Every structure is written in structure tokens, then in C-alpha cells.
Amino acid sequence: MEVRIQREPFDLGAEANAFSERQSGIGAVVIFSGIVRDLPGGELEAMEIEHYPGMTERSVAKIAEEALNRWSLGDVLIIHRYGALKPDEMIMMVATSASHRAEAFQSADFLMDFLKSRAPFWKKEIGGPRTGWVEAKREDEDALDRW
Questions:
Q1: 55-77: b or e for each residue (b if 16 or more CB lie within 10 Å)?
Q2: Residue 83's CB: how many other CB atoms inside 10 A?
Q3: pLDDT at 141
Q4: Considering the entire predicted model, what is its pTM?
Q5: Under 8 Å between Cβ of 72 and 78
Q6: How does pLDDT run along the chain (147 residues), one tens digit per residue?
Q7: Sign of CA dihedral 96, 102, 103, 109
Q8: Is 16 exposed, middle or buried (0-12, 13-18, 19+ CB in 10 A)?
Q9: Cα(82)–Cα(9) distance, integer angstroms
Q10: How distant is the alpha carbon of residue 64 from its chain centre?
Q11: How far is CA 109 from CA 33, 49, 90, 141, in A?
Q12: Residue 20, Cβ neighbours under 10 Å: how many?
């Protein structure tokens, strides 16, 4: 299991290949990447992501451990960036491996729901008419009810 909270960009292809190459006796690898989505009309200048060092890593590692305990996984990798990110930049990546695809997909989905709704990151949209902090969305909160 690896959790990285970092400012610098990462190479999705290189990370996915390295993760996959570390797996042995595994039948499935699921990779999900999140990208900064622009506002309608292309008005987003940046998405500022803040976190509390230490607290964020512990929180994300705890949920990764929960995924490892709930599903029969080979490994988990979570990379999440912070700082000012431009539209179309990679914001995060989740990778899971398991003997069977259902466990790999379910655990990745679980991790994504947690990262979206419960991980201690704060997001601020800069640019356009909605400049300000991003509010939690009801549908993101509702997604947690599945788990």
C-alpha cells in the first residue's frame, strides 16, 4: 500500500505501469485518474487544493487500509495532488489490484467515494463567476451510503 500527497505532477502511464509490474499472481488491476474539470465557458483559471500535512496522509492511509481489509486486494496506490492546478491537469490517481476484477473495481470505487467526500482536502475554484470554495455535493454524500 502506498499513499502519496504531493504538489508535483505525476506521469499516469509510468505510475500505472510501475504499479502493474509490482503485482504477482493478480488477475485484475484497476486504475482511475481524476482530472481538473473546467467551468462551463472555460472560465476556470485554477483549482486550489489545500490540505493539512500529516492529517491528510493519515486519513487517506486509514481508508486504504479499510479497502485492503474489506476486499481481497493485492495492493493499493493513491496519489493526490495539492496546490494550484489548471484545467485538464491530473489531480489524483487510485490503483487497486485483486485476483478478480469485481474486487478491484469495487475497492477502487469505494476509495474514490471516500476521496471525493471525506478526505481532508479543501478545493477553491479561481476564475469565473463562481470563484470560491467548492461546496460538498449531495450526490457525493449519497454515494457513501453504498458502503
A1: ebbebbbebbeebbeebebbbbb
A2: 15
A3: 78
A4: 0.93
A5: no
A6: 999 999 999 999 999 999 999 999 999 999 999 999 998 888 999 999 999 999 999 999 999 999 999 999 999 999 999 999 999 999 999 999 999 999 999 999 999 999 998 999 999 999 977 689 988 788 877 777 888
A7: positive
A8: middle
A9: 10
A10: 11
A11: 12, 22, 18, 14
A12: 14
Amino acid letter, residue 97: S
Distance of CA 108 to the CA centre of its chain: 9
What was the pLDDT predicted at 147?
Answer: 84
- Locate 18 and state its grid cell: 510501475
In the block, cell 489531480 appears at 91
| C-alpha atoms less than 13 angstroms from C-alpha of 84 in its C-beta half-sphere | 5
Side-chain-facing half-sphere of 1: CA atoms under 13 Å: 14
Beta pairing, strands 73-81 & 28-35? unpaired
For residue 47, how far is the Cα from the chain centroid?
Answer: 15
